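The aim of this short unit is practical: by the end, you should be able to scan a pair of folded records and say something sensible about each. We start with the first protein, listed as its amino acid sequence and then its structure tokens.
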Amino acid sequence: MTKAEGSRPDDDRHTEHMRQHDQPHQAGREHQDTWPPSGPPPAYPAADGLAGVGDGAGVGDGEDVGGSPDGAVPGDGEGPDDGPVVDEERALEAEQRLERAVSAAERALIEFEIAVETFRVEVENFSRLHHQRLGPMYARLDELDALIAEAVAAHSGDREDIRHAWERRALVMPMPGVEELFEGLLGSDGVRYPEDPAAPRRVRPGEEARRLYRELARKAHPDLAQDEAEQKRRGEFIARVNEAYAQGDEEALRALAEEWEAGPPPEPPAPTRAEELYLRLEWLAARKETLAAVAAELEGSAVGQMLKIAPDDPDGLLNEIAEQLLAQVAERERRLESLLRPVDGRP
């Protein structure tokens, strides 16, 4: 997904400000559905060609894929005069339809990936610029709100005003708890204990463990392999042997010895071309679902919602928000000044 900016103390407040700012723009608008799975936002290329991927429908050409994973084609009611040649032709036609379906799905998925990545980059850039350019303004607004609340509380002495002033000040300067200060370094008894990974049972494994280990090392050593694949298999197996020996686990070593004696599992039969194509369609469908989830998360974010307001001019939207924030800062400064102004000649 998705990339995300590092966590910053002010991010939550900025996100809330962004959502609050977004509400006036959304007034009078109809609710828009999340853009996947039918495709990305209107500003980007549609990816409707992926609809139906993996469900047996021909993607992009309107044809039925037909056939089955093993290349067989259902009969069409013709008589017993149809021979093997006719069946072979039908299987070939079904395979060709699968080829076209896979090709169309691959092209559509590429366009969908481009659209999602384009949108992700814009969301990330907008978020970064929003924080850099507007973050100080949001911080100033928070500070002014705290000062105004404190001034009101000082004038009224009302308990509710004082509580509100404390809340506004806490937003500007949150006070961390004791656990946060020590970042969980202390235990329940107030003492910090070093992390202790799982310790071996004993310094020197038992005699039986040493015997099993030596036998396995002699039989399964990677240097005895005749090809690269076998060397990799032996290397992975010996790594498991070493781990069991380090723990002195005789039972695990015996199980590994039995596994080695049984030999490698038999190679599965190679799939037919039709099976490969169906597997490819399933992978394409799964990939599309993953991208759709990423796209939905991006669009549902505060930044994504703001980008939907001005998809053609996001920089102009930033400038518009900045002007509104400056006006809010000026209004709050005037209010604070009026609250701090002496009354009836008193200092």
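Turning to the second protein, read its sequence before its tokens, just as you did above.
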Amino acid sequence: MILFFVDLTSGLFLYHTYKSILMKKIRLALLLMALPFSGLLFAQKTEITVLTQQKGPKSGAKEENIPYFIQFGIMSKNHEDFKNKYHTGVFYQNCIISYEISKQAKENNLAVAKTLTEKYGDAWKKDLGIIPYGL
């Protein structure tokens, strides 16, 4: 009978040891699975800083303040000749247009077109080569 009791005790001891090792392995596996997700919490708080660089000569650089047409999409043509002749530029923005940006571009382009028509007539339209947004 005593041997049976000893076997039972050693069996319980092995069972508890196996259970303890199994629980440690499960905890370790859960920790290793949760570790990558904990990094995502901190990744959401990063700030993006955009650095700009001025092109051209720094000394004696002259900033131009000229009227311009606002266009959307990919730049299809170089408008330097038009800019030099009529002192009016063309500024291209990306393809995504909100209601407010669309309204602002139409008002701006109508005002610039009105000014050019008063000064030069309709000749500027042929030289521009595109139909400005909103006209």
